[in-house]
Write a structure and sequence with these properties.
The chain is an alpha+beta fold. It has helices at residues 4-12, 14-21, 32-43, 82-97, 122-139, 159-162, and strands at residues 52-56, 59-65, 70-74, 104-109, 114-118. It is built from six helices and five strands. Strands 1-2-3-4-5 form a five-stranded mixed β-sheet, covered by helices on one side. The longest helix has 18 residues, at 122-139. The N and C termini lie far apart (34 Å). Bound molecules: iron/sulfur cluster (SF4).
Length: 166
């Protein structure tokens, strides 16, 4: 099964996906999870009535508005990233697979004061099918994908693990 986490890590780094899927979990050494939670609570304390937490088929949506079928995703990042869009598209796709059609995605960047609307197109659906096949191939492979030597490695929870010998 491809979970939301698998899908996200695939967008970021295949090696990260593989390490995570192999059960090597370093997330506790990172503050990112905690910070993510914190921004939800401090930026939108009034939201609890309108939004529900929705867990379905390997994904967990923190802010789902069932009446308007809107998925909100709040990003702490100070940069708009393609991976964030794909994360939302994947959520919309999974909901569709589970009979919840015509959802809309809203990406919010409180620190940038920026909001973006995300829609799922047929082209996206095709790409998601291809990506999930690729993800399954990677996580079932014996080989750990190579280091990507990217800027994002610095903020990755596997940084120490990946660069221990350098
Ligand atoms: S440190 Fe870099 S290469 Fe290693 S898993 Fe993270 S993003 Fe990938």
């Amino acid at each position: 099964m491809t979970t939301g986490t698998h899908f996200n890590y695939y967008q970021v780094c295949r090696r990260k996906l593989w390490l995570f899927a192999s059960g090597i979990n370093m997330e506790h050494t990172s503050d990112l999870v905690y910070d993510g939670k914190l921004i939800h609570e401090t930026s939108y304390p009034q939201r609890s009535e309108r939004y529900e937490e929705l867990e379905i088929d390997g994904i967990k949506i923190d802010y789902y508005d069932p009446r308007n079928k809107v998925i909100h995703e709040i990003k702490r990042s100070d940069k708009v990233e393609k991976a964030h869009e794909w994360q939302l598209k994947y959520y919309m796709y999974v909901l569709e697979q589970n009979g919840i059609h015509d959802t809309t995605g809203i990406l919010e960047y409180p620190e940038l004061r920026h909001t973006a609307r995300v829609v799922l197109t047929d082209d996206d659906r095709e790409k998601i099918v291809e990506m999930t096949q690729d993800i399954q191939q990677i996580i079932h492979s014996e080989d750990c994908p190579p280091l990507i030597h990217a800027k994002i490695c610095r903020n990755c929870s596997y940084y120490d693990f990946c660069y221990v010998e350098e």
